[in-house]
Design goal:
single chain, about 120 residues, mainly alpha, two-stranded antiparallel ribbon, 2 strands, rod-shaped, P-loop_NTPase
């Protein structure tokens, strides 16, 4: 059962003889402090071998995704700004043309010549 699996793990980890370094209860395993520390060191070593590379890869993937997103957003913002500038220029040119046309066709515009402001 589960007790046998725990004993096997402790023996595979090379941590003593049953009943000396640990004691199996019905629902718990009681370890001597030396054994607990040795198991903790083994766990930390295994963690570094397995988990740290996975975390590194996951963090790198998330960082690349964030950079792609920022670049995409920056490109969209740039496109919107360019569109607004172009539309504003086109609209201003259109309004200027309309004003010139209205001035040229109106009675008030008759006889008005283009004047320059003094510099």
């Amino acid at each position: 059962g589960e007790g046998a699996a725990v004993e096997e793990l402790l023996m595979l980890a090379g941590h003593g003889v049953p009943g000396v370094d640990y004691l199996m209860g019905l629902t718990k395993v009681f370890l001597k402090e030396v054994t607990r520390r040795a198991l903790e060191r083994s766990r930390t070593a295994a963690w570094k071998v397995v988990v740290v590379p996975l975390q590194t890869a996951a963090r790198a993937m998330l960082a690349r995704k964030a950079v792609r997103l920022r670049r995409s957003v920056a490109a969209k913002v740039h496109a919107v700004r360019a569109s607004v500038r172009a539309r504003d220029q086109a609209r201003a040119s259109e309004l200027l043309d309309d004003a010139e046309e209205a001035l040229a066709t109106s009675e008030a515009g008759q006889g008005i010549s283009e004047r320059r402001l003094p510099s």
